[in-house]
Prior knowledge:
Radius of gyration: 23 Å
GO molecular function, one term: UDP-xylosyltransferase activity
Number of domains: 3
Strand content: 5-15%
Keywords: Signal, Transferase
Domain Glycosyl transferase CAP10: 159-409
Protein name: Protein O-glucosyltransferase 1
Order of helices and strands: HEEHHHHEEHEEEHEHEEHEEHHHE
Number of helices: 12
GO cellular component, one term: endoplasmic reticulum lumen
Amino acid sequence: MKFIVCSFILIFCCTLAENHCPDSILFHKDVCLLSESSSNIEYGERKKWMHYLSEIRRSRFKYNETCPESAAHCFESCFQRGCCLISSDANGIFIYCLRSVIEKDLQPFQYIRKDENMPIHRHTVVYQIIDHKLYREQQCTFPARCLGVEYFLLKLIHVLPNTEFVVNVCDYPLINKYSSKQAVFSFSKTADDLDIMYPVWSFWKGGPYIPIYKDGISRWDIQREVLIKAAKQWPWSKKSNKAFFRGSRTSKVRDRLILLSRQKPYLVDAQYTTNQATRSLDDTLGKEPADFVTLDYHCRYKYLFNFRGVAASFRFRHLFLCRSLVFHVGDEWKEFFYYKMKPWIHYIPVKEDLNDVEELLEFVKENDDVAKDIAERGYQFVLNHLTMDNVTAYWESLLKQFTDRLVYEVQKREGMIEIL
């Protein structure tokens, strides 16, 4: 009965919207952007952008971002229909939605033997939880990253069963789907990888080091507060009407935006900074490196670009809290929460070759209300759902489901040290 009621609510709302808005017009905040109430907006002014507007409309019908309070109890049946029902007071529903990510990651590992749960690389670290105590190998290549992982494990130590798992603390995944099956946790991967995703260490510690962040870009709880404050200081109406990017040349995919900025500085302000691997001006495309800027400085701009680095970029989640519109380049690399953020709903997707970037920038400038709405949806998603509590809850769900698949009794390994 609950399924029927919930389905009726969703179908009725969508049918109402279809009847109210012609197919060629974007459905926006439950009204037509080109309705009689929008008399200042002529159809002809938007007609040339109809391929983008239609894409946004289709995306919103596919993905139902919120659920009326009266129907919140039937989120499970609605989730089966492909909609993720989330609201600011229902983080448990958000974690439920992310269970599908965990289940997909664990699908190749229905039964995990001990020989499939072993360290395979110098950057992997074995963790054990035995009788509610946390143990780790003595050697950790990146101590700050291990601390970032251990913060969440220690918060959960009293609710986790005896278990053991292998954590990869380098930037790139380790288990290709064509290689031998090994259960390894990595923070980021592509569709060709079998690594099991976990929330990256930098939610607490061990994030990318740049001179203006002496401890690296970490402490997500603090960064959230800083960025939320900056977003209030730089509302949409005060932001610069140009695109912005600062970062090092960890991927040549970024080159085209840098070159576009040099050709059309009125359109884009994009420059390369240095990193630990910078050796010459070749690493900054022949120009002196730009000064580093803080994350909250980005909030001065309407349009912010995110690129992959060695793997998924650490900056991605931060950009949304500026309440700016995020342009996400490419879709190959994922983190655990990417699967519930959707193109045209939370951000603007950009082809990896950037062939469409100038047209997209023109589109958002000529459709400022649409751009602002997508920026707001991205902001609300990260604000309400990518919280420290939810990161902790994801760890808990991941480890419990992983442990259920172990087909051997966990015993303390030699050389392990207790983490307090």
